[in-house]
Prior knowledge:
- This protein is about 40% helix and about 15% strand.
- The chain is an alpha/beta fold.
- Helix 12 (about 305-315) packs across helix 17 (about 360-370), helix 14 packs across helix 17 (about 360-370) and helix 17 packs across helix 18 (about 370-380).
- Iron/sulfur cluster binds near residues 138, 143 and 171.
- Iron/sulfur cluster binds near residues 137, 138 and 143.
Amino acid sequence: MKIGIIDAELVYNKKHRFPNLVSMKLSAYHKKKSDEVTLLLNYDNISDYDKVYISKVFTDTQVPERVLAFSNVEYGGTGFFYDKAPPLPYEIEHCIPDYHLYDEWVKNQLENGVTKKSLKYYTDYSIGFMTRGCIRGCNFCVNKNYKKSEKHSNTAEFLDNSRPYICLLDDNVLACSDWKNIFDELISTGKRFVFKQGIDERLLTEEKCDYLFNKIKWIGDYIFAFDNIADKDLIISKLKLIRRYTDKKIKFYVLCGYNHQNNIYDEEFWKNDIISLFERIKILIEYGCIPYVMRYEKYNSSCYKGIYINAAAWCNQPNLFKKMTFSDFCKQRGMSIKGNKIYGNDFENYIANGGKKGAAWRYLNEFTAVYLDIAEKYFCMKGEM
Ligand code: SF4
């Protein structure tokens, strides 16, 4: 059989840089059956194949509707069905991924000047899940229907010994009762690994910290999440715990624009949400951590949308975040390129010489005019104490 496999993110977003695990498993399954498998990079020749699989992770990735109507096309993934995505059949889910599916594409990328480093997940990592599921049931999350985190596979199921690193996509490994055996098994591979989706710091204990910061050979950033200001006291207690084990920079996803209590998104909510966002950023700065702002789609309807855009641009560029206050960042972002070159951080001189305030600067001013107290409390802090 001629099998075509489409990683929808790769077709839609030319800058996408993470392999699709389902596509690699489908490829492995069909190659084992001696089928001819091709990674397709567009939707042009669907009819040339006996079967075409389209896999999509993100809901905002576009796939032409007409393609989904082809009788030889099968499609799936959270990008199509979100929390209702049907699982893969057992024999496909549990086969070792075909790490060569992207070889030709990687070769072309390298020839076209893309850096080897940016393709590392295609070339250097074994990828898989040790556990599936989560205990939290957060309403905004694709995993909201899960009630627990359970063992899903052993490393043997996805480990390619020729690859130096392991990337794990588990949703909440620390919530699994078997977490210690899982870490021991990963350690026994001798490889460095990372849990890319983040770790639930609310579940940290002395023993878990000892594993995470002393025993494990981690690669890349440690990533946690601080999504809800209601967790403030718990998060601070865990930050203190973390700091007894490591002084490394730690990244925290910080969700904003989401109402954890109800579905009311009025002026009062947006004001409080911005306070919550900056209060969490402030706490993280105090403990030497780096926030990574994640905007829930509702932020688009906020009267202070520009503040969210600026906050994400500020925090998510750690080099700027460390050096500049939020206020200076907005002002500099709101200068013309020429003005920036001439005046740098000398904002007063820029304005005195006729410089115009661009959107980022205007957003800052508009918000500050209404909520001077919030601006005074938070907008003059820098990412590094
Ligand atoms: S803790 Fe994380 S993975 Fe679990 S439901 Fe909440 S957002 Fe999703």
